[in-house]
Predict the structure.
Amino acid sequence: MNDWLGLEGRTVLVTGLANKKSVAWHVGEGLAKAGAKVVWCVHTEKRRAEVAKLTGDAPVLVCDVEREESIEALARELGARGVKLDGLVHSIAFANYSAGPRPFQHTRKEDFLRAVDVSCFSLVRLAGALEELLASNAAVVALSISTTRMAAENYGFMAPAKAALDSSIVFLAKSFAPRGVRFNAVAAGLLKTSSSAGIPGYLDSYLFAEQATLRKRNLETREVADTALFLLSPRSSGLNAQSVVVDAGMGVNFFDKDLVRRATRPESGA
C-alpha cells in the first residue's frame, strides 16, 4: 500500500471509542489501514467489553479522565508495555443535558465545570501524564467544533468548553514545541454520532446544517477522520496550534438564497 501519509509503523493512542459511529472509530480504522498500530482507550471496563468485537487484537485500555489516579494508571500501563507514542487522538467530550436547554445565565456550575473538565482539561492532563511517552515529533489531535462563536441555544455551555479546548491546544503546542510535539484540532461541523444524539433538538440542527452546507449534503464522519489522519501524519509537519475547520462550507453559507427565502417567506414552501 502506498504510504503517502507516512503513518505506517507509527503507534497512536486513540481515546473516546464508543461504537462504529464514533469519530474515534473512523480515525483508528484509518490508522490501521495505513499500517499504524492503534492503542485504544475507553472510559470504563463495560465499554471495553462492548467494543471488543470492533478492536480485534489491538490493545484496549481503560481511563476515566475525571479521575487523576486513572490517568496516572494509564501512563504507567503504557510505560510498562514499552509503548512510545507517535500520536494521540483526543476524542472525549461530555455535557449533562438532562435538564434540557435553558438560558445561559442559568447554567448550573457543576454542569459547566464538568464539561470543561472532561472535554478540555482531560487533554491537558493526558498530555502532562504522557509527556515522556510521546516521541519526538509526535502529533496530538483533538476533536473540536467548527465554531464556538455561534450561540446555539441547544448546545449551550458545551461551546465555551470547546472554546477552552481550542485555546488549550495553542498553549500545549507552545509548551511542547521544544520537543517537536505538535498539537492541532479538527473543528468539525455537525455529525451523526451517538454522543450528538444526546444534544436537545440536535436532529433539527443537523437537518438545517445539511441545507447550509455548500454542497447541500452533510458532513461525513469519515471526512473528519481523514483530516485527523493528515494532522497525525508527518505530511502536516507545518501545522501546529491550529484548528482546521471541516464543515463542508456550512460556516460561510448562512445567507444562502434558499435558506433566506424559507426563513422570510415560509408560506412559499420548500
User: Anything to note?
Assistant: The chain is about 40% helix and 15% strand. Residues 71 and 125 are 8 Å apart (CA to CA). The domain at 11-194+219-250 is CATH 3.40.50.720 (Rossmann fold).
